[in-house]
Each structure stands twice: as C-alpha cells, then as structure tokens.
Design brief:
This protein has five helices and twelve strands. It is globular, with a radius of gyration of 17 Å. It has a twelve-stranded antiparallel beta sheet with strand order 1-8-9-10-11-12-2-3-4-5-6-7. The chain has 219 residues and is of the alpha+beta class. It has one domain (6-31, 39-195): Lipoprotein localisation LolA/LolB/LppX (outer membrane lipoprotein receptor (LolB), chain A), CATH 2.50.20.10.
C-alpha cells in the first residue's frame, strides 16, 4: 500500500512525504459509521467507571484495522502495556512500525531504515496509555453515551494544540472498541481493535525502540 501519514496516529502534524504512511478515519469511518443519532450526556459516574476499568487493564494485545482520512485501510497486530508503552506491527507488505517505550514514540520504516522520534508526552497517545484516566480534570473535552456506545473525548490544548483522542467503549462490558485521533489539521485516524486479550505477559523487548538506528541515521 502507499505510504501516508502514520504520524496522524499520534496526533502529529505531517511534515515530509517520507513520514507519510497510513492514517485515520474521516472517509474510513464512513465504512464503519456509528448510528447517526443524537447522543445524550453520559452519567459522569458511569463514564468514570468505564474509564477506571480501562485504566486497570495493564496489558493488551490483539488485532486492529486502521482507516485513513482518504478511506485508506490497513491492519496488523497491536500490543499495549500501561503506562506509556505501545507497538503497532502492520501487516505485510507494509514495512511500518510504531513503538512507544514510555518516554518516546518512534515511527519507523524497517525496509528503508528511516525513523522519526517524538516525545510521547507531546502526543494524544499519552492519554490512551496513561496510568489513569481522570474524567474530572481539564483533559476531558466531552463525554457522551448511547445505548451501545460510550464516547470520551480527551485533549490538552496547552500540550497537543487542537489534537484530541476519542475513546469509544462498550457500555456493558467496558471494553475499548475503537479510538480516533484528530490531529492539528482536523484530520482523523481511527483504529478499531478486535480479538483482544487482556492481562497477557509481554516481553519487554516488544517495546524497545532501536535508538542506535534512530541516532545513526542522523549522522
């Protein structure tokens, strides 16, 4: 598939063609669109209960499908360890990887051996991977609820600018279904997850960023 702003997955503004890869969800969401009905404000305590449950899951792994703003689609496997760690392995023939090690996020093309490094704290992914999601603080932009979906929008304008992350949960099981990152250009990246396993043992090497390769390319 063609390369196209995987940076949008972290809510980062695309700056070079080399950094472009798959992205998120504007047109793609139309393919998996949620019912377009009015959403009522959620019970704050119920929403916090969902957020607490999600935060309590320290490790996750499964499969994902990612949709881009122009309808592009790709998939792969993901791994999460709270706090701050994530890995996305995209299905072949894509050579892309996304790795967060708790401090930084790296976007890499293992075929071209190119890497882009960003502080995790400067991306909305840090909210997804945080130790606890507190719906009582200023990070919460919106909380809405339907019969089959609870939606929580998080952002920090002082850190991420206009970037936000929208988390979508099953209100009955409290399971995370999907997240969408809206970047500073108001373009969406949506990730749907499935075949999820919680509480799994993950090898620490899964979240290791190849810093030697990252630094070597800059010489």
């Amino acid at each position: 598939m063609t390369e196209h702003t995987i940076e949008r997955l972290a809510g980062l503004e695309a700056s070079t063609t080399r950094r472009r890869f798959v992205a998120g969800a504007a047109a793609g969401l139309a393919l998996v669109a949620l019912p377009q009905i009015a959403m009522a404000a959620a019970d704050p305590s119920a929403a916090q209960k969902i957020a607490d449950h999600f935060s309590s899951v320290k490790t996750m792994m499964g499969e994902f499908v990612q949709f881009g703003p122009r309808g592009e689609q790709t998939g792969g496997k993901f791994f999460i360890q709270r706090p701050g760690k994530l890995r996305f392995n995209y299905d072949k023939p894509s050579p892309m990887r996304v790795i967060a090690d708790g401090k930084n996020v790296v976007i890499g093309n293992v075929k071209l051996k190119t890497w882009d490094l960003y502080p995790l704290s400067k991306t909305p992914l840090s909210l997804l991977l945080s130790e606890k999601i507190d719906l009582g603080n200023k990070l919460v932009r919106d909380v809405k609820q339907e019969a089959d979906l609870t939606t929580i929008v998080l952002g920090d304008k002082t850190i991420f600018g206009d970037s936000t992350i929208t988390l979508m949960f099953d209100p009955k099981t409290f399971d995370l279904r999907q997240w969408t990152i809206t970047d500073v250009q108001a373009k969406d990246t949506s990730v749907m997850i499935f075949n999820v396993q919680n509480g799994v043992q993950l090898d620490p090497s899964v979240f290791e960023i190849p810093y030697a390769d990252v630094h070597t390319q800059k010489r």
